[in-house]
Amino acid sequence: MPNLGPFRRGFWKSPLRGPWLASFLSSALLPLLVICALTGFLSHAAYEPDQGSNALFDEGVDLYFFHWPTSPAWLYAATQGLHIITGLAAIPILLAKLWAVIPQLFERPAIRSIAHGLERIGLALLVGGSLFVFATGVLNIQLWYPFGFSFVPAHYYAAFIFLGALSFHIATKVGVMRRAFRERGLLRPLREDLAHTEPEPELEGMLTSAPADPSPPTMTRRLLLGTVGAGSAGLAVMGAGQVVGGPFRELALLAPRGEGFGEGPNDFQVNKTFEAVGIPEDEVGSAWRLGLEVDGESRTSVGRAELLGMELVTASLPIACVEGWTTTQEWTGVRLSELARMAEVVEPSEVEVRSLQPRGAFRRATLTAAQITDPRSLLALRVNGADLSLDHGFPARVIVPALPGVHCTKWVGEMAFASSKHPASVPNPGDSDSKDSASLPTPSPASS
Amino acid sequence: MRRFRYEYGANPAHLLVALASFALAAWALAQALDVLSTLDRFLIWFLGAIVLHDLLFLPLYSALGLLAAGALTRGGERGRLRVAALNHLRVPALLSGLMLLVWYPLVARKGTSSFMDASGLSNEVYLERWLLLTAVLFGGSALLLALRARGLRSQV
């Protein structure tokens, strides 16, 4: 490679670049990335891909060994809110970090040893992986899909590439970071005013991003980092405004769910409008009946008036979207456990809730036994004292504490329960497994 | 051991971590191939992101920054006021640019139909909001510079 242009060490003039700046940005970035990654995997688990038809793609191996809980009710709002907030906040820091180390893309000799060559391959995976997950995530929350591949598996598997490369990167660079902080101090460069801002010297015996021929400083390190921090905080506030909601939604100035609706009982954020899903109007009219099925056999069906005549429960529950917004409302409806009783299913192990929606990956969702039995899990008929609007799932929708929003199925047409002994044909005493029999339900008074 | 270090360029643990990281990447790619059936677009976006950022986006904003710096500190003029003016330009430009970069789909009204299908909301407001934010950032920065100007001039 010629010793010209960016390949020349003297080409990179900024006096602020160097191992301290890179290390400082990395230490700000790392905790955000850790939270973002953990909450991302938690979101994957919250979708319960092992349950019924929930899996969005075939995963080969099952990495999740627990069921997503229903308490606290704000659990998914919190984890997914954190995922989007930390992800947004990391963007300016990541860009600044890439700016700080860009001279090393052009370093010469391009490959000093096998180890260095492997590190550079790792860096390609790191930079590509990070830009990929951030770009696809940011596009997805704004509902623009120009990439032409399925978002969920691509974002999910790119995260593994990114995190593997990140671990390799940390393992090889932690020494540089330790030296940079030991020689320059953790925060000392932040105290320098412009007159005292000096170009960062090279760490002895190392090739870093420190400039060989710097120009005089025109900016302090604290102004640079303060600007990055302000960008990061600004994005975090916009993300948080959508999660906290209420009056704070106005802070989500440029975020996709920063607009309010109005003051009415049904004036809150929607995911998928009635018009968009294409359900014929007459299917949600007076002829609508909820079908109840057990182990593939139709048991009964019930109309909306009958449902309204049953014991109604009101619960204040948040509904949280994977795209990082939440809204908390007062839902009124029939307990899912009550509907299980009505279908005469003993100890349901899961229920597949089917929407009238003719298309879409989320037209059905399978709930776990714990989600069916939670006393706050409802087939909601009303919200904030009024009938549900069509956009919010009229005639009936599911609302379950801590369940990802898209699994709170709207326009419910059928609920298909599976009993613990599947298939739940009449137990044959001859081949019944004693362990299973022991776990058959014993009648007990309702817990609430 | 010394021979390994000499030949390889680092200790054996380095090699193990490298191989573990690459194995994970290979597994993830194989899984993605399984699900997406083709990796063409995945790889285009993965590698394209590197090229776009490192060879287009970063050089572009660096060049814009150098242009502004050149114009304001022409002929080696580096009085405190000029350097301050440069920073009062840089900071709002960086923040406004960041917001445009992150919220580009909403501001530029990309994916309008899927946005409206999902949210029942219009994405018309975002261009206005971004312009307003940009005006506030540059205006606030200019006001701050005006307030600082006298002090800066007297210290030249």
Characterization of this structure:
The complex is a heterodimer of chains A (448) and B (156). Chain A is α+β, with helices and mostly antiparallel strands and 448 residues long. Chain A has two domains: 5-246, no CATH class; 274-423, Oxidoreductase, molybdopterin-binding domain (Sulfite Oxidase, Chain A, domain 2, Alpha-Beta Complex). Chain A is 38% helix and 14% strand. Chain A is built from ten helices and ten strands. Chain A has helices at 19-46, 75-101, 114-141, 151-184, 221-244, 274-277, 304-309, 336-342, 369-373, 434-438, and strands at 289-294, 297-303, 313-320, 326-335, 348-355, 364-368, 378-383, 386-387, 397-399, 412-419. In chain A, strands 2-1-10-5-6 form a five-stranded mixed beta sheet. Chain B folds into two domains: 1-37, no CATH class; 73-154, no CATH class. Chain B has helices at residues 2-8, 12-36, 40-72, 80-102, 104-107, 112-119, 125-154. In chain B, helix 4 (80-102) runs antiparallel to helix 7 (125-154). At the A-B interface, helix 2, helix 3, helix 4 and helix 5 of A face helix 2, helix 3, helix 4, helix 5 and helix 6 of B.
